[in-house]
Backbone:
């Protein structure tokens, strides 16, 4: 358009610069190029997919708000123009398109999001390694409840969500602590609602490594020693198994003997009873028939006792067989892991240091050992009653508690060797005072940080994983992820990924706007501490005048807007220094 054309009014101000930024990144072009086998009447299926992304960026709570809100998005052609479209479709058309997507088409859309995200992730990973010398990752499992009485959501299940049991989904999430943006979502994977955290640690970390293209040196020496210890248990387990087999064999022979005696004495009793009946003799207390009956009862009782011994021996054998099978399975798993980790180390030209922080749901023995062997420094809490119960017994009246927060105290034990864990752990017990009540909890750590020397730092470092909790809250309250906008499998999956992408996208766009928008509202242009909720919930619903130019536009908030007098100069171009492939191998220079 020419510079002489009149400004146009939009009711969705921030969607204008975000649309221009999407075109800078090639997002609109790449989505438009995805082959989707659906017919085009007025709007292409690709345009409807893009519209669904914009609806999530606008923080709409329900899909129908595209058409039925006070200021419908599908009536705002200025926003459509900013996103490279002539107009938007009705929400019903968006819903039908989402419902008709094939799994391959959905994967193609997610691949576009991944390709757009990758340069930003690479650059932030390299920057974090240069500044801090390591990456900090946080993992979580977040519930997505739906109506408990619904029968129309695919692949849902009942599970724990927000401290209650609800019908819905679980999302396994990993975030990267970013020097520039504060937090970036690395990966999100949706599961049925009955999925539990302890099963997701390994898949989450492997997905994160695949996205980053980086991982620590595997601790194969520690894994070999673990295998050696397990190998040393083989003879004792075999001996116990053989003894259990022998005991069962002896018990069965003994039972067979007494069964024969019972049969024999049953025949004696029957024969004696026949003779007594024929001779019409009375059965006296010390008669032969009475003695035979007494002897039979004795052998019958002995049979029951020996049957009980056989059952006991069978249970003992079953227990030993299970222990032997568990040992074999663990040996096979660890041997395969060792082979894989040795291969990982041979091909890892750029090993890094990384911290992985997880809550107690992930803190099982198996998960903690795996993460340690994978080379990570681990901050977590013990799962269930694995550890906290015994820590309470370690504390006595002479124990010195250290205050680490306003109502929190800690006591710690460095490099503790536990009988049920293969490696030494730094362990701490937390004590929280809430009025007259006292709550206790455990902390575990493995790595180079001397956490037990400064408990306050340990306490603060672990609790910095609240950044991912804040991210969950942001997804649900800002981008309305607690409302699933559609009920098709493809639509639900896209919404999950679109929201994570939108949270990253707004942060990237903030840095882009920073170059030319000094008159933006206060706090909007700090990508590490941006007012994201204000931008989405207020800015994306505000009135503004848009003047189009050859290489972008000027957005001026309308006089009745809460941002009256503010303006954003938007260029449809951006100089972004990509993280080139060789940079990953020389980030330390």
Residues:
């Amino acid at each position: 358009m020419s510079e002489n054309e009149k400004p146009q009014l939009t009711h969705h101000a921030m969607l204008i610069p975000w649309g221009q930024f999407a075109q800078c990144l090639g997002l609109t072009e790449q989505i438009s190029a995805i082959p989707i086998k659906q017919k085009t009447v007025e709007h292409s299926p690709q345009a409807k997919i893009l519209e669904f992304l914009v609806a999530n960026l606008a923080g709409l709570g329900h899909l129908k708000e595209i058409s039925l809100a006070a200021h419908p998005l599908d009536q705002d052609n200025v926003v459509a123009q900013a996103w490279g479209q002539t107009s938007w479709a009705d929400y019903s058309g968006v819903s039908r398109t989402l419902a008709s997507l094939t799994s391959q088409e959905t994967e193609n859309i997610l691949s576009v999001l991944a390709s757009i995200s990758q340069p930003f992730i690479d650059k932030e990973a390299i920057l974090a390694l240069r500044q801090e010398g390591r990456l900090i990752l946080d993992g979580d499992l977040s519930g997505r409840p739906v109506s408990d009485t619904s029968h129309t959501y695919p692949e849902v299940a009942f599970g724990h969500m927000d401290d209650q049991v609800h019908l819905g989904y679980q999302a396994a999430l990993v975030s990267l602590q970013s020097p520039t943006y504060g937090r970036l979502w690395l990966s999100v994977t949706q599961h049925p609602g009955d999925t539990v955290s302890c099963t997701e640690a390994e898949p989450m970390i492997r997905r994160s490594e695949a996205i980053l293209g980086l991982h620590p040196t595997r601790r194969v020496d520690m894994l070999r020693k673990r295998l050696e210890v397990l190998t040393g248990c083989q003879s004792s387990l075999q001996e116990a198994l053989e003894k259990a087999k022998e005991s069962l064999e002896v018990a069965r022979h003994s039972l067979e003997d007494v069964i024969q005696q019972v049969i024999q004495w049953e025949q004696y009793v029957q024969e004696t009873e026949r003779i007594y009946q024929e001779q019409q003799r009375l059965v006296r207390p010390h008669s032969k028939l009475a003695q035979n009956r007494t002897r039979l009862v004795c052998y019958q009782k002995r049979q029951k006792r020996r049957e009980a011994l056989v059952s006991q021996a069978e249970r003992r054998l079953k227990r030993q067989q299970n222990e032997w099978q568990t040992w074999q399975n663990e040996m096979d798993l660890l041997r395969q892991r060792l082979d894989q980790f040795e291969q990982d180390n041979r091909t890892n030209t750029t090993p890094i240091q990384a911290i992985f922080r997880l809550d107690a749901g992930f803190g099982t023995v198996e998960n903690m050992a795996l993460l340690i062997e994978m080379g990570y420094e681990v901050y977590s809490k013990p799962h269930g009653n694995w550890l906290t119960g015994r820590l309470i017994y370690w504390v006595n009246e002479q124990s010195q508690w250290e205050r680490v927060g306003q109502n929190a105290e800690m006591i710690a034990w460095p490099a503790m060797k536990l009988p049920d864990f293969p490696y030494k752990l730094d362990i701490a017990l937390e004590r929280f005072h809430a009025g007259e009540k006292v709550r206790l909890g455990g902390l575990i750590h493995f790595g180079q940080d001397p956490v037990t020397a400064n408990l306050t730092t340990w306490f603060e470092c672990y609790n910095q994983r609240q950044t991912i909790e804040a991210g969950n809250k942001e997804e649900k309250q800002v981008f309305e992820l607690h409302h699933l906008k559609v009920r098709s499998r493809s639509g639900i999956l896209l919404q999950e990924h679109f929201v994570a992408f939108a949270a990253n996208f707004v942060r990237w766009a903030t840095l882009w706007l920073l170059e030319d928008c000094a008159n933006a509202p206060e706090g909007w242009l700090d990508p590490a501490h941006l007012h994201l909720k204000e931008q989405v919930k207020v800015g994306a619903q505000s009135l503004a005048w848009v003047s189009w130019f050859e290489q972008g536009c000027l957005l001026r908030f309308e006089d009745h807007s809460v941002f009256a007098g503010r303006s954003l100069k938007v260029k449809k171009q951006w100089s972004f220094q990509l993280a080139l492939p060789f940079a990953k191998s020389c980030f330390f220079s």
Q: What stands out?
A: Confidence is low (pLDDT under 50) at residues 585-589.
